Amino acid sequence: MGKKVVVGMSGGVDSSVAAYLLKEQGYDVIGVTMQIWQDEEEIAQEENGGCCGLSAVEDARRVAAQLDIPYYVMNFKKEFKEHVMDYFTDSYMNGKTPNPCIACNRYVKWESLLSRSLAIGADYIATGHYARIEQLENGRYAIKRSATLAKDQTYALYNLTQDQLKKTLMPVGEYSKDEIRKIAEKIEIQVASKPDSQDICFVPDGDYASFIEEYADVKIPQGNFVTSDGKILGRHKGITHYTVGQRKGLGLALGYPAFVLEIRPETNEVVIGSMEESMTTSLRANNLNFMSVEDITEPIHVFTKIRYNHKGCWCTVEKTGEDEVLCTFDEPQRAVTPGQAVVFYDGDYVLGGGTIL
pTM score, two decimals? Predict the structure, then answer.
């Protein structure tokens, strides 16, 4: 029997094909769907779908049966609530824009699933992410960009530890999305043409502000839109409705394109300014995690992404404290957003990253 691997199956085409590829490679594959927040009526879930709805369980169960692999549903609601939903809500209420998928990857999909999988005798866990893992010449493990940059998911994985990477397989990273769909069609799994999930799974309608009020049982008060020098421009609906860099949905007619520059929870103000004012030459970040290197001791010039769909830019990164870096961009960047991740690349490999302050 080959080495045992637990595949996190979301019911989507990527994780389904990941399970198939690993079985073909001779691994002893077990399929697991993580139950993390589903409590609602089944009908609502069916409509919402997403990567974690109840329909995902049925899709994953059917695929596992077709692949003839054991399948289980594991309950991670407690971990998900603590590390993802609480963090998401707290961040927005403190004027930051969180990335819940990064937190979910690090603390739920990896930390919790991996420890539980090792406890049942697995050697590895695997996912359907478009990324690759390699051991470098320096002995460290690093995430490598996927074979297809169009679907590269390395940005959301920068936070994984060496121990987690050592015990993880990502077979989908060698393929393009079209190739994965073709494999799914060839083996005739029902989810071959299932669309990708786009939204944050626990806020399927995208209305973050309403979710936060309901989840935290608070009423977020209205406040003032102001300029950088304190001039009042109008009223905002509550700080959880906004994110730095936002342009649409402000309801302001200023005669020029207006952008959110800053969110000030302590005074309940949302600072508004022009496109030029939204450009930034540097950022600070903490909660650092280094991957291809153990740490950086002197300034380095690296390719950097400041959000998932950012095309990337060059910057110089230097340590300014035990757990803090200063990144100085070669060219000013728009919408540097506190709470989002900044991720550094060393060629095709993730060097590391942190949370923008």
Answer: 0.92
